[in-house]
Amino acid sequence: MDEIKSALEIALEKAKGITVSEKEIEKDTALEQGTKLAGEYLRNPKFNLSAKLTEIKEKLQIIHPDVSSGQANYRLQIEGAIQVFLRNIILPENKERKKENLRAMEGLYHLKKDKEKLKDIFAQIDQFFDEYLEHRKQLYEHLRKKYESFIRQTQEMKNLEEQMKKQGVKLKIAVEQNPQFQQEWRAILNQLDQDYGTQLQSVKEQLSAMKNID
């Protein structure tokens, strides 16, 4: 009986004979370097992106005597970093995540030419995120009160609440642990994220289309 081939073995067999040009390898390498650059910036608050970009440009001038080749590599690194920053601008679940979005936007600010337009767009995004968080909070509170009211109306809960009241204790209902509540909240949140996510994607496409630095 023939051996059953693993998915990796099959993939490797299919890849045989496929050649990748040196130019494609250089392109992928430059994009990957840009990705790492952005990752370091996002992780390290003290990382000086402007200084690092200057350093990269100077090194490329030495490595690539051909000016156009060095410029092409630099632009690809910039593009790789921009892709990472854009991916890290997402709908925030809280104010802490909103701060992480701000860091990604600051990174973009270093890599795009039209700074004034960027400031306007970032101000709009900041307001957009505030509106999203407020809308999310309102929907959550509305659902929580709805379930809390429903649970309090059950006879069993009324009896328990009455007993605790006699003991001078106020009954606190943790509706967040209710499976039905969790299921309905997920459905509401998915719809909310879809609506706001569509708008955010449109803005990110606008940011992507803006001219990069040279």
The run of helices and strands is HHHHHHHH
Bin the helical content.
Answer: over 70%
Mean pLDDT: 85
Major sheet attributes: none
Number of strand segments: 0
What is the domain total for the residues? 2
Are there runs of 5+ residues with pLDDT below 50, and where? none
SSE topology sketch:
Layout: H1 7-15, H2 22-43, H3 49-63, H4 67-87, H5 95-111, H6 115-152, H7 155-166, H8 179-209
Helix pairs in contact: 2-4, 3-4, 4-5, 5-6, 6-8
Structural notes for this entry:
The protein is mostly helical. It has two domains: 1-87; 113-214. The protein is 77% helix and 0% strand. Helix 3 (49-63) runs antiparallel to helix 4, helix 4 packs antiparallel against helix 5 and helix 5 packs antiparallel against helix 6. The chain starts with 6 loop residues before the first helix and ends in a 5-residue tail after the last helix. The model has no long low-confidence stretch (mean pLDDT 85).
Brief rundown of the structure:
This protein is an all-alpha fold and 214 residues long. Helix content is 77%, strand content 0%.
